[in-house]
């Protein structure tokens, strides 16, 4: 991903892909992911009984379903030139629907756990007492008391709201998994596991057909990283989050393309990827705290605790951005330039 990096990658693969067609490289990857999708689906059905152990197994299987869905969909998007275009676009759209539907329940559960943990930590933390005088100490004591009382109420409010949202997301996921739309997706993936609808262009050498799209996915990522704000005093709101979320999605597409052309993920991108995941989680948690604070007729102490919680999660957003900048391994100008 440094200048000329794509050329180095091509050279590395001349010995392994020189005699392979694009289809011979692309098809096994898609078939492997399709097989993983089908295994995860079977495990999800086997573990969907209403028991604690079954629920845990179903959650793990749903996570594996999401991962294989994202990999198949991302590969169909990046390398569509080597695939039947109509089929690839249709299946990619359906897999995005499925992955998004399954992800919501997990997202609400993760968000609630994150917020409750943060509230617990904040309610046990001393507030700053750098102000001078007895009046300042009394004000700090009042703030601590308000936060202590409000944290419990804020936690209860968040638990009600996010548990309800999670329950609705769970019902939507179950409904989706039982729908004719999902069965059509599962049938399409089952066919993919045995046969990949390739375009005539897939008969061309892999070096010629696959590295170009992979390089474009890489360049889209580099461009997005270069466009990220470098100002440490970024606006204290959600307005600047969107480019970071987009960069996270582009990093995912690049990772999947790297897996296809290199056979394995790029290890140096693991830390930046985790930082962007934490950025997304903190951003969404902050939004949930702000939404809860807009609940009508809540007590002032509850609103105060939610405000502190929102500020804490926005601080976590900025921290995640700093971690990303520190761990980004390529082209320093992309994250430190003007």
From TrEMBL:
Residues covered by region (Disordered): 47-66
CHAD domain span: 19-333
Gene3D superfamilies: CHAD domain
Cross-referenced PROSITE patterns: CHAD
Superkingdom, taxonomy of origin: Bacteria
Protein name (database record): CHAD domain-containing protein
């Amino acid at each position: 991903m440094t200048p000329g990096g794509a050329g180095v990658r091509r050279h590395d693969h001349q010995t392994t892909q020189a005699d392979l067609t694009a289809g011979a490289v692309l098809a096994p990857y898609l078939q492997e992911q399709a097989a993983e999708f089908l295994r995860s689906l079977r495990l999800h059905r086997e573990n969907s009984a209403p028991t604690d152990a079954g629920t845990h197994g179903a959650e793990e299987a749903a996570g594996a379903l999401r991962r294989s869905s994202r990999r198949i969909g991302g590969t169909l998007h990046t390398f569509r030139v080597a695939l039947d275009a109509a089929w690839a676009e249709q299946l990619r759209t359906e897999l995005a629907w499925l992955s998004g539907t399954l992800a919501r329940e997990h997202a609400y559960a993760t968000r609630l756990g994150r917020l409750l943990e943060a509230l617990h930590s904040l309610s046990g933390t001393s507030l700053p007492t750098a102000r001078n005088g007895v009046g300042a100490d009394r004000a700090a004591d009042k703030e601590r008391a308000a936060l202590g009382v409000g944290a419990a109420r804020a936690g209860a409010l968040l638990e009600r709201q996010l548990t309800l949202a999670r329950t609705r997301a769970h019902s939507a996921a179950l409904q989706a998994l039982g729908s004719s739309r999902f069965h059509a997706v599962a049938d399409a993936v089952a066919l993919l596991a045995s046969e990949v609808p390739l375009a005539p262009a897939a008969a061309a050498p892999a070096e010629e057909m696959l590295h170009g799209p992979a390089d474009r996915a890489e360049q889209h990522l580099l461009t997005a990283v270069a466009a990220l704000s470098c100002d440490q005093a970024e606006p204290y709101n959600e307005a600047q989050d969107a480019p970071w979320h987009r960069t996270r999605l582009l990093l995912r597409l690049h990772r999947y393309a790297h897996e296809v052309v290199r056979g394995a993920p790029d290890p140096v991108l693991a830390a930046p990827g985790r930082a962007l995941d934490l950025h997304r989680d903190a951003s969404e948690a902050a939004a949930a705290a702000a939404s809860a604070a807009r609940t009508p007729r809540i007590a002032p102490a509850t609103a105060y605790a939610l405000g502190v919680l929102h500020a804490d999660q926005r601080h976590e957003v900025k921290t995640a951005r700093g971690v990303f900048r520190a761990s980004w391994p390529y082209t320093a100008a992309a994250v430190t330039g003007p």
